[in-house]
């Protein structure tokens, strides 16, 4: 299973990679929405882990784009967010996101969540 | 009772919370594998579980909500049959990663540095005008830092970045305006963040040897007071004014006066320190104590006027202790002196705090500080001494006895136990407070850490290697012999040494960007301090400079800029009267020029006043009346030690720091300082720094028996002149028609007054040089060769030679002079 992690923080991407790769997942990376959409392997992604706040194209814009792309529209998008207010968290869900994981998360929790979608 | 847990979890569950969803699934699993449910219930539960699992599939939101409430109702039924429902399991707070993963931590540090490096500039840009994109950018940086810090369990970084983020959010929503106080807070916040990150960096690099996961904790500094201020600002807009720093305040006390007070007090503290140190050495301790006492008393009086309770309190205690010593000299010991010095340091720190606006005027109760003990808490000697001093006045004789005895005990005990502890504490203290003098601003970029001593050593060896190489290849023993194999190997060797030299040089080259952005901050702080609106423009910041050199340039730059703002740039109303822009501008730029890097500081202030400088120089006996001097020479006078045209004592002159420091530092680098100024318009100071300290490519030419090396970067061509190309002009000068341009000829033999072989100019060879828009043709007898030369400074007994920047030893042991083409052009053709 291929997970596409989109986050402007290289540290977060590293954390995700370190958590998922030992579990046998392939992790693709991009720094922002724009970069993600132009990634050559984007069609191969099975699930998106997306940060909300990013330069150039934020997570919400990205999910809109994903939902309009027929190749991708069925792939679940999970937001990585630091928001604590429910309305804020639901904003991404209303755009078609599968849900959210609140930062900071523990690697085992991330793995469990991803397993729900495999 | 897993079913009750399940219900509790479900009640608080909101669709989309994926972590909670996975936890609920776990509880379902546990419930089904336990024997909590009977068969029938189990069946139902399995159905509910399947429904729940379907919730993460894509589908209608409303429908999912309905399914969810259905599941809840189903579970409720099991729970009702079981009583009592236990309290829901306490929500476990997401624990931060305790053992830090080294890679992750390193990545965080590098990332934070990237963010922080540019944040300061951006914040300062904000001050000149609100720009939503800029705020967004800074916000995002803070947001990222916050996010990652929360993973790594770095509470201070997290809290700080969180609060700063909130302020930026308010700016974004325009609930706050980017005025001075807010910007100040953002800047100091960034400073603290920088400090914390740098500290982590230091700690990790220390532990770098073992790569396993280690416990690395944040620097333990107290940020509560600061975060309090941030919180106040976030809650309401009012307190931003309060924190706006030392510029505010009532009309009686101006920022100028405060500066003067701090400067003066710091000077006096130096005197006191000297007196205290003399105490140890001399027999005449009474005089030194009285001196110190008197000076402290002055500081105390001044502090009272400015209403700095803390300073007054410290002074008072110092006075008391000195009073005890004055009346009872036996008490004097190494430890007493240490205590006194500690108190002086404490006072100095407090003054710096005032300077930075961290201490505000007001009463001080002084209960919590131990001013004599140094930064180590719990060493109470000073307090005890002082309280004894006070007790003494009530009952002199008895107390004196008691005092001597107890003091002895205390002193011994203290001497034994806490000497090293104090040193440790001091070292730690230094790390926390010591680097606040401006070093922390720009986070340095690095990939691996190498001790610069080693680099320097390598640099020296490189110089030796090149000399050695030349000695072998041009060895007189093999001169004129046809040695094809040797030449081949020699060429190969040359190629490698050359490459190695380039690599060695580049290792220490860093862009000036960091230094320049430090100056931006300086200009900002100083312009506020002096109450002048001064802006800075910067260009050429990507010019690279040797790191060692850059360190030497930093101080002169600070002095020049301070001077510009303090003395050069006029007050607002003066500027308006003179029809200048109402704000002053300092332009800071850098560029390569021949073999030099030019760092140029130009201000549009009142310019240098030739007459005034001359007058002053005459009065100080630096020049004589009949001396005829060009503007250039006159302006150079400002760099003479002891020269200052400032009429009033300000922070700079008060601290005894003059422009002579500039000259001294630049001289050390074999550089030059040029000054250009038009009265009333501008002053431009050019620091001309040699590109490298050690090795240059040069062409060596012979004039008579002398050898001169000319840096290759200054040379444009070599010409064999014909008679028709030469024209003699009025006096003794000659011009050379070079591609239809007239180039002045400088006969090196004449210039340096050495014997020449040739009689006619056209018998020699012309080396056409160009430096800073000046072109000249240097006439020499012959070209000896082109090679790398290792620059050595001229030996001191030679003194300075005009237009010579150093010398170099040739492979055969002869010495060549390295020409300073710029000076040569200046001096020969004006």
Structure, described:
The complex is a heterodimer of chains A (118) and B (830). Chain A is of the alpha/beta class and 118 residues long. Chain A has helices at 10-20, 33-37, 59-68, 86-94, 107-116, and strands spanning 2-6, 26-30, 47-51, 77-81, 99-102. In chain A, helix 1 links the parallel strand 1 and strand 2 (26-30). In chain A, helix 1 (10-20) packs across helix 5. The longest helix of chain A has 11 residues, at 10-20. The N and C termini of chain A lie close together (8 Å). The model of chain A has no long low-confidence stretch (mean pLDDT 87). Chain B is of the alpha+beta class. Chain B folds into 5 domains: 2-81, no CATH class; 102-242, HPT domain (Four Helix Bundle (Hemerythrin (Met), subunit A)); 255-431, Four Helix Bundle (Hemerythrin (Met), subunit A), CATH 1.20.120; 510-690, Heat Shock Protein 90; 695-829, CheA-289, Domain 4 (OB fold (Dihydrolipoamide Acetyltransferase, E2P)), CATH 2.40.50. Chain B has 28 helices and 18 strands. Mean pLDDT of chain B is 76; it is low at 85-98, 238-252, 375-446 and 647-656. Classes of the chains: A alpha/beta (118), B alpha+beta (830). The interface between A and B is large, with 36 and 35 residues.
Shape of chain A: globular
Tell me the name of the CATH class of the largest domain in chain B: Alpha Beta
Name of the top-level CATH class of chain A: Alpha Beta
- The CATH architecture name of the largest domain in chain B reads 2-Layer Sandwich
Q: What's the helix count of chain B?
A: 28
The proportion of strand residues of chain A reads 15-25%
Q: What fraction of the residues of chain B are assigned to beta strands by DSSP?
A: 5-15%
Question: What are the main properties of this structure?
Answer:
heterodimer, A: 118 residues, alpha/beta, five-stranded parallel beta sheet, 5 strands, B: 830 residues, alpha+beta, Four Helix Bundle (Hemerythrin (Met), subunit A), 5 domains, six-stranded mixed beta sheet, five-stranded mixed beta sheet, 18 strands
């Amino acid at each position: 299973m291929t997970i596409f992690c989109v986050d402007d923080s290289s540290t977060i991407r590293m954390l995700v990679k370190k958590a998922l790769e030992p579990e046998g997942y392939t992790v693709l990376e991009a720094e922002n929405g724009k970069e993600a959409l132009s990634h050559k392997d984007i069609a191969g992604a099975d699930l998106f882990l997306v940060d909300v706040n990013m330069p150039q194209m934020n997570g919400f814009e990205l999910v809109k784009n994903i939902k309009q792309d027929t190749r991708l529209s069925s792939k679940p998008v999970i937001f990585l967010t630091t928001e604590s207010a429910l309305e804020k968290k639901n904003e991404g869900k209303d755009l078609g996101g599968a849900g959210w994981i609140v930062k900071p998360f523990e690697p085992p929790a991330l793995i469990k969540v991803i397993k729900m979608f495999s | 009772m897993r079913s009750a847990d399940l219900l509790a979890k479900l009640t608080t569950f909101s669709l989309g919370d994926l972590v909670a969803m996975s936890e609920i699934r776990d509880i379902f699993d546990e419930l089904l594998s336990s024997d909590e449910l009977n068969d029938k219930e189990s069946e139902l539960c399995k159905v509910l579980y399947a429904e729940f699992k379907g919730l993460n599939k894509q589908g209608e939101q409303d429908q999912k909500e309905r399914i969810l409430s259905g599941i809840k109702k189903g579970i409720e039924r099991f729970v009702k049959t079981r009583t009592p429902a236990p309290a829901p399991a306490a929500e476990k707070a997401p624990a931060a990663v305790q053992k830090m993963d080294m890679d992750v931590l390193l990545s965080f540090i590098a990332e934070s540095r990237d963010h922080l490096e540019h944040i300061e500039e951006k914040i300062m840009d904000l001050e000149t005008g609100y720009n939503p994109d800029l705020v967004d950018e800074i916000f995002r940086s803070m947001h990222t830092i916050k996010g990652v810090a929360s993973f790594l369990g770095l509470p201070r970084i997290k809290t700080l970045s969180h609060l700063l983020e909130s302020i930026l959010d308010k700016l974004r929503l325009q609930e706050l305006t980017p005025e001075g106080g807010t910007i100040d807070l953002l800047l100091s916040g960034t400073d603290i963040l920088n400090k914390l990150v740098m500290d982590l960096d230091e700690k990790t690099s220390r532990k770098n040897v073992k790569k396993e996961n280690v416990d690395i904790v944040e620097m333990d500094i107290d940020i509560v007071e600061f975060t309090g201020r941030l919180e106040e600002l976030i809650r309401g807009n009012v307190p931003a004014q309060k924190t706006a720093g030392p510029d505010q305040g009532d009309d009686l006390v101006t920022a100028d006066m405060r500066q003067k007070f701090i400067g003066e007090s710091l000077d006096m503290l130096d005197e006191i320190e000297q007196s205290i140190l003399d105490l140890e050495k001399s027999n005449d301790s009474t005089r030194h104590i009285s001196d110190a006492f008197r000076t402290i008393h002055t500081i105390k009086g001044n502090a009272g006027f400015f209403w700095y309770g803390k300073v007054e309190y410290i002074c008072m205690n110092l006075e008391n202790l000195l009073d005890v010593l004055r009346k009872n000299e036996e008490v004097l010991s190494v430890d007493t002196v240490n205590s006194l010095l500690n108190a002086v340091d404490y006072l100095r720190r407090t003054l710096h705090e005032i300077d930075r606006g961290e201490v505000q005027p007001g009463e001080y109760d002084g209960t919590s500080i131990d001013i004599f003990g140094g930064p180590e808490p719990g060493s109470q000697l000073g307090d005890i001494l002082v309280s004894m001093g006070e007790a003494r006045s009530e009952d002199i004789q008895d107390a004196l006895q008691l005092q001597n005895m107890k003091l002895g005990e205390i002193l011994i005990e203290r001497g034994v136990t806490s000497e090293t502890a104090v040193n440790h504490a001091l070292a730690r203290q230094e790390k926390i407070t010591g680097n606040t003098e401006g070093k922390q601003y720009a986070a340095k970029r690095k990939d691996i850490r190498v001790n610069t001593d080693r680099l320097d050593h390598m640099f020296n060896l490189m110089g030796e290697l090149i000399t050695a190489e030349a000695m072998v290849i041009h060895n007189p023993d093999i001169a004129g012999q046809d040695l094809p194999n040797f030449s081949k190997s020699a060429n190969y060797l040359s190629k490698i040494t050359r490459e190695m030299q380039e690599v060695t040089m580049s290792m220490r080259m860093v862009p000036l960007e960091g230094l320049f952005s430090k100056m931006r901050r300086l200009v900002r702080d100083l312009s506020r301090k002096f109450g002048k609106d001064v802006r800075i423009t910067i260009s050429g910041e990507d010019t690279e400079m040797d790191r060692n050199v850059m360190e030497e340039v930093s101080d002169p730059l600070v002095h020049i800029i301070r001077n510009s703002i303090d003395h050069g740039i006029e007050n607002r109303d003066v500027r308006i009267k003179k029809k200048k822009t109402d704000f002053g501008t300092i332009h800071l730029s850098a560029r390569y020029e021949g073999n030099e890097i030019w760092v140029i500081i130009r201000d549009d202030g009142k310019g240098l006043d030739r007459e005034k400088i001359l007058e002053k120089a005459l009065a100080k006996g630096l020049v004589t009346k009949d001396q005829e001097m060009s503007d250039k020479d006159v302006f150079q006078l400002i760099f003479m030690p002891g020269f200052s045209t400032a009429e009033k004592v300000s922070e700079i002159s008060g601290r005894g720091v003059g422009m002579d420091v500039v000259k001294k530092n630049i001289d050390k680098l074999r550089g030059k300082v040029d000054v250009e100024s038009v009265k009333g318009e501008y002053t431009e100071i050019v620091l001309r720094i040699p590109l490298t300290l050690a090795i240059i490519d040069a062409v060596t030419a012979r004039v008579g028996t002398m050898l001169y090396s000319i840096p290759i970067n200054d040379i444009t061509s070599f010409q064999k002149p014909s008679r028709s190309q030469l024209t003699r002009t009025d006096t003794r000068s000659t011009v050379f028609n070079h591609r239809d341009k007239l180039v002045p000829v400088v006969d090196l033999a004449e210039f340096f007054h050495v014997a020449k072989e040739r009689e006619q100019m056209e018998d020699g060879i012309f080396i056409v040089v160009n430096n800073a828009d000046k072109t000249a043709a240097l006439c020499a007898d012959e070209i000896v060769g082109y090679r790398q030369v290792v620059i050595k400074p001229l030996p001191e007994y030679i003194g300075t030679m005009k237009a010579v920047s150093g010398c170099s030893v040739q492979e055969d042991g002869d010495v060549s002079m390295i020409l300073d083409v710029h000076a040569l052009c200046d001096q020969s053709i004006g």
